[in-house]
Design brief:
InterPro entries: YcxB-like_C. This is YcxB family protein. Keywords: Membrane, Transmembrane, Transmembrane helix. Pfam families: YcxB. Helix 1 packs antiparallel against helix 3 and helix 2 packs antiparallel against helix 3. 16% of the residues are buried. The protein has 2 domains: 92 residues, PH-domain like; 71 residues, no CATH class. The strands form 2 sheets. A 4-stranded antiparallel β-sheet has the order 1-2-3-4. With 171 residues, the chain is α+β, with helices and mostly antiparallel strands.
Amino acid sequence: MEIRVNITKLDLFWMNSQAYISSPGARNIAIYAWLAMAGVFFYKGGFNASVDEILYRLTVFLGWAVLVYGFFYVLSTLAVLGSASKNYGQLGDHTYEVTDTGFIESTDVNETVTKWEGIYELVKTKRYLYIKTAPLLVYVIPLRSFSTETEFNEFYSKVKGGYDNASAQAH
C-alpha cells in the first residue's frame, strides 16, 4: 500500500511538539534544572526553613523547571523549523509505502527503507501517525493525506501489523 503526502512546516511543528514532550532527554533537562535550583535555594537559605518557606521554594523550583523546559522546547522547535527544507527531503512531497518487509519513504532527494525491526514506536494522534525509528527520528504522516477514514485505517492496520509482528519475533 502506498500513500503520497505533502509535509509542511506545520507538520514538522506538531511532530517536534509530540517528540519533545515524549523525549526522556527533554524531561531530564527539566529535572536537572529543578534539582540545580533546589540545591541553590537550599544552600543559600539553609535547611532550617519554615513550612511556608519550603512550599514557596518548591513552587519557585517547579516554575524554574517549567521555564527551562519551555525555553529548550522553543529552541528545539526553532532549530527544526529553521533548518527544514525541501532540498533536504524534509518538506514537500513524500511517498510512503508499506511492504511485507518494512516501510519505504521516498522524496525528490532520497529514498529510505526501514525494516519493521527498525521501528521504535507507533504514535497515533488526532492529526498524525508518527512512525518513530528512534526517540527523535520520525516519519510524519498527516491524516489529511487520506481521502477516507477507511483508507487511513487500512494503512494504519498494515503498519501496525508489520510493527507488531516484528516486535513479537524480537521477544
